[in-house]
Amino acid sequence: MRTAVRVCLVSLACLALSCDDAVEPDLSGSTGEVELRELRLDRPPRDSTDADLFGASRPTVRFVLQQLDLIAETDSAKGLFLRVGPFGGAWARVQDLQSGLAKIRAANKPVHCHFETADNASYALMAASCDRISMTPAGTLNLVGLSMQAFYARQLLERIGGHADILHVGRYKGAGDTLTRDEMPEAARESLGALLDDLQSQLLASVLARNDIADIAEPLSAAVFQHGPYTAEAARVVGLVDDVGFDDEAREHARVAAGVEVDQVRTLTLRKPQKDLGLSDIVSAFAGDQESTTVTGERIALVYLSGSIVDGTTPKPGNAVSGPFVDAMRGFARDEDVKAIVLRINSPGGSALASDRMWHAVRRAAAHKPVIASIGDVAASGGYYIACGATVIYAHETSVVGSIGVVGGKVSFGGLAEEIGVNAVTLRHGPYSDWTNGFAPFDEAQRASIQGLLNSTYWRFLRRVAVGRGMEQREVHEIGQGRVWSGVAGHRLNLIDELGGLDDAIARATADAELEDPEVEVWPRPRSVLESISAAMGGDQEARAQLESAQGALRWNALLQELGPVGDAANQLPSLLEHEHIAVAMPYVLVVE
């Protein structure tokens, strides 16, 4: 097996000759001449440092915010021409970007935006942030208001001979409903309806902000959602866009507004130019001769926690794994030069065991130095569990928070086994010894026992939140029970401290650490393809695990993307089936677009 792995890694090394560097490029340098800067975001930026090892490079939220700050602060940068595509459900990331664009406009520099296809989220970004919006003639503006989908597959599971024994603690904790119900229960409708109302209000506020930017004959209102999706001309007539034209025409308008010459438009490519690598480069990398990029001295640590939370000791692409995270937090807590930690969370939860271990690491670090949690699109259930260990919690109005509840159980396939002629015979000592049996549902004694485990986990969850938020357990229980809240509601209920984004959290950490313009160390540190292969060949188990799973993960993720919302559901369901069978996972597989 090891021989096969080494052969695989050597073949991957050959790919490094033509792959882009996964580490984000430094685009901050200026030519010294006045210029209009152009930035293209066809998709929302990433909220993690997971490298797209063999796929298209995509910048992180922080990287894009840094570029926007540079435009605002650099005298030679006279404005921004921004091209966007659909953003899906990246609502909190939209608000992060709105904050960055607001700084450019506050510096009296024009922000012109252009799109070919936009959806609710990407239009919200433009409407609240752009002095001028243009749209290509054949484009589509899918501004139709928000909808939310949840999926229920009990009948499908039964048809393939499966049976779900999923138990909950909390009226709103419906993570297992996907496998045990055919329809949405009333409690879910209440919770999700309130969440959708809050998110729709934020979308409307962004759209109406355009009234204060553009010279619109008829002020925009909530009625705009009744007539989409829009053609380019229809969008122009009602004032959603200022002009219909192609990208070169929109760029020319932006150039004139910025007051620069034709040859002074600078495109910020978010992919580093390919570099020619020779055999000597690969040999040097494998020999460990590469230049170190480790940040030293007094600094802030920026720690990303993204994806479903799982227990384990090695990284897993697309997941937040407890072992590496705990080790990193303990290291930052001990390092006297790390003066504060910013914890960026974008997770729907997962393993209860892993969440508790990670909460403990955050709590211990917060006893030594400021730990500022910044919630992205979602920090629900296990994600929120971990955030409660921080000193201060930031979230956007559109972030999803809460989901304080527990789910657990198993899925058995006795019916399928019978259909295909398999007879499973179980011998046991004790009434609970076969409770994880994959061929039979729980009996009444086992069900009662598992419910007891879930109750214990739930009360532990309540205690963690109560301690972190300075609340009584009774108060936490009243707003818990698995219910999800928007960031604006969470702020009202004391689930978060401040409304704000990643920049605000870093600024707070800087102030609390009493530093001025500190260096920021990012964890997990992004690696180039060549660095990853070199480390794996040198015995780095973390790098080896990443590379061994990268190709399979890419194929799986590509399939899930093709499946759309159903793929999102398939990606989250395994968190319910972890080996400890108890999860603090978001109660629904949600798609909000």
Q: What is the secondary structure topology, with strand pairs?
A:
Layout: H1 2-15, E1 35-41, H2 61-73, E2 77-84, H3 91-106, E3 111-119, H4 120-129, E4 132-142, E5 148-149, H5 154-159, E6 163-169, H6 177-180, H7 186-208, E7 230-231, H8 232-237, E8 243-244, H9 247-258, E9 265-267, H10 279-286, E10 299-306, E11 308-310, E12 319-321, H11 322-334, E13 338-347, E14 349-351, H12 352-366, E15 371-380, H13 382-387, E16 392-395, E17 400-402, E18 406-412, H14 414-419, H15 444-469, H16 473-479, E19 484-486, H17 487-492, E20 498-499, H18 502-512, E21 519-523, H19 529-537, H20 541-563, H21 565-572, E22 582-585, E23 591-592
Parallel strand pairs: 1-2, 1-9, 2-3, 3-4, 4-8, 10-13, 10-21, 11-12, 13-15, 15-16, 15-17, 16-20
Antiparallel strand pairs: 4-7, 5-23, 6-18, 14-22, 17-19, 18-22
Q: Care to give the gist of this entry?
A:
This protein is of the alpha/beta class and 593 residues long. The strands form five sheets. Strands 10, 13, 15, 16, 17, 19, 20 and 21 form an eight-stranded mixed sheet that branches. Strands 1, 2, 3, 4, 7, 8 and 9 form a seven-stranded mixed sheet that branches. The chain has a four-stranded antiparallel sheet with strand order 6-18-22-14.
